[in-house]
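The authors assume throughout that readers already know how a fold can be written as discrete tokens. Each protein is reduced to its one-letter sequence and a matching series of backbone shape codes. I therefore recommend that a typical entry be quoted early in the introduction. For illustration, here is how one protein appears when written out as sequence plus structure tokens:
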Amino acid sequence: MSHNTFGHLFRVTTFGESHGVALGCVVDGCPPGIALTPADIQPWLDKRRPGQSRFTTQRREPDTVKILSGTFPDESGQDVTTGTPIALLIENVDARSKDYSEIKDAYRPGHADYTYDAKYGLRDYRGGGRQSARETAARVAAGAIARRIVPGMVVRGALIQIGPHTIDRSRWDWHNVAEGPLFCPDVRAEQQFSDFLDDVRKRGSSVGAVIEVIAENIPTGLGAPVYGKLDADLAGALMSINAVKGVEIGDGFATATMTGEENADEMRMGNDGRPRFLSNHAGGILGGISTGQTIVARFAVKPTSSILNPRLTVDRYGNETEIVTKGRHDPCVGIRAVPIGEAMVACVLADHYLRNRAQVGEPPAWPFEKT
């Protein structure tokens, strides 16, 4: 299987399967001298970790990360990056492969079972093997490193829709995102989400979701205008997450209903002598290049395909049959996709930051400062 690496200067290669001994990643291209210990990575993995509420899979994985290479104590004794590849390992401790024995030959509708088998001639049916969202733990670990590369960068995500139910943006509260079980910024909507998910779970079904990720304190000038567009790379990274079926930047598809006057992010001069935008319909990116505004991306996650209710399918021998997926599964995989989306955005921005620095050095913050 090829294509297990993403990024250009900040490159991440992930490895491992859902029910294998371990999974992890190798991060290449991280600059030297950045403070890094497992304690800097673990909090982000804890956000994604399964089994933390009744709304996620009850698989019990501590997701404890180990740094195998790429760090060394500096003169003060603090572990810092050396500029060499950073290898991270996360062991699997609670795999129950027998839960999948009944479906080892049948294809789950809506799942990648069929396409993997058609392409490779075999598949790891134990939790989906490499196609499982368990692989994303390594991405979150890599994202923790990426967050430390761009000075001042803050990347945060939130669950803004489950099924037909959406938040009220006037009640947006980042504190509730951090404290609540659903990463929801609207405490009233969170209760509605919870009641809806309880019903979905009791019915043995699943539901989709929409996640919004924002990145603040991003320098102007990241990205290239033709084949290296920042928004194109963000879209590709978010689409690479399991079960994601749609991505939009800024107002995205809503811009199709706008006029040119409504969509234009008008500009004036700020009190600090720099231009300021009066709106951010573009999501912080114009012509594939960051504007210095907050970058906004949203992505849609489809319902989990592993459900208890019987579905029509075929098996690998061409027989028509029904399938019921037992075991431990998320009724809404979009919940734990929040920290994954954050990680992918952080990795893309770290990569573009290093690419921009390699091409133009440390440019002024905006054109009017040039002499």
User: Anything to note?
Assistant: The mean pLDDT is 91. The CA atoms of residues 59 and 126 lie 13 Å apart. The first strand starts at residue 5 and ends at 6. The longest helix spans residues 337-360.
